[in-house]
Amino acid sequence: EADIYQTPRYLVIGTGKKITLECSQTMGHDKMYWYQQDPGMELHLIHYSYGVNSTEKGDLSSESTVSRIRTEHFPLTLESARPSHTSQYLCASSEFSGRDTDTQYFGPGTRLTVL
Amino acid sequence: QKEVEQDPGPLSVPEGAIVSLNCTYSNSAFQYFMWYRQYSRKGPELLMYTYSSGNKEDGRFTAQVDKSSKYISLFIRDSQPSDSATYLCAMSAGYNAGNMLTFGGGTRLMVKP
Question: What would the mean pLDDT of B29-39 be, rounded to a whole number?
Answer without folding.
Answer: 93
